[in-house]
Design goal:
The complex is a heterodimer of chains A (114) and B (113). By secondary structure, chain A is mainly β. Chain A is built from no helices and eleven strands. Chain A starts with a strand and ends with a strand. Chain B is mostly beta strands and 113 residues long. Chain B is globular, with a radius of gyration of 13 Å.
Chain lengths: 114, 113
């Protein structure tokens, strides 16, 4: 079945440093979604990328979808303490057979040291 | 527009009891998903439902677990004869279609003593 691998599992940064998490799929994805989960909270949808090579920005966050639609990255510039949490990618399968259609990575835990 | 609602937020059950978790999707969302999360781990898909239909339950254990999304009322995830290993956070999510982003509820933290 489809697998979505996410690295690194944990990332410690000093406040103000940049942060990047990577997501890789064993199969071509229909879309990639990113979620953020604060400690003790619930996942919150950030963005969806659909097109090959797509790049989207949200303030200090930059999301990329690879040309082959098998990988993606989330880059945060100049991290702040509010960025703490776990960032999940979720790869969309080309639907068929009534399946859920989405496979989550295990997440990258971002820890920020002030 | 209220988000996805889940109750209870915390649930404590003794081994062998039943746990019943409720989820009300966002208004206008007909797709409901249940996920399970252990501490420091990712989200494990359990079941995907639309009104009155289970579309995919491939992630749900065959025994003791069941889910429904009736025509009226919330979606229910039911765990019979709970065991300690069922302790986890259970999140419900909803979406207007299969391909879009999911809106997650605050979760139910189940503790089995």
């Amino acid at each position: 079945g489809q697998q979505v691998m996410q690295i690194p599992q944990y990332q410690h940064v000093q406040e103000g440093e940049d942060f990047t998490t990577y997501c890789n799929s064993s199969t071509t994805l229909s879309n990639i979604q990113w979620y953020k989960q604060r400690p003790g909270g619930h996942p919150v949808f950030l963005i969806q990328l659909v097109k090959s090579g797509e790049v989207k920005k949200q303030k200090r966050l930059t999301f990329q979808f690879g040309e082959a639609k098998k990988n993606s990255s989330l880059h945060i510039t100049a991290t702040q303490t509010t960025d703490v949490g776990t960032y999940f990618c979720a790869g969309g399968r080309y639907s068929g057979g009534g399946a859920d259609g989405l496979t989550f990575g295990k997440g990258t835990h971002l820890i920020i040291q002030p | 527009n209220a988000g996805v609602m889940q109750n209870p937020r915390h649930l404590v059950r003794r081994r062998g009891q039943e746990a019943r978790l409720r989820c009300s999707p966002m208004k206008g969302h007909s797709h409901v998903y249940w996920y399970r999360q252990l501490p420091e781990e990712g989200l494990k898909f359990m079941v995907y439902l639309q009104k009155e239909n289970i579309i995919d339950e491939s992630g749900m254990p065959k025994e003791r677990f069941s889910a429904e999304f009736p025509k009226e009322g919330p979606s229910i995830l039911r765990i019979q004869q709970v065991v300690r290993g069922d302790s986890a956070a259970y999140f419900c999510a909803s979406s207007p279609n299969l391909d879009g982003g999911r809106n997650f509820g605050p979760g139910t933290r189940l503790t089995v003593t």
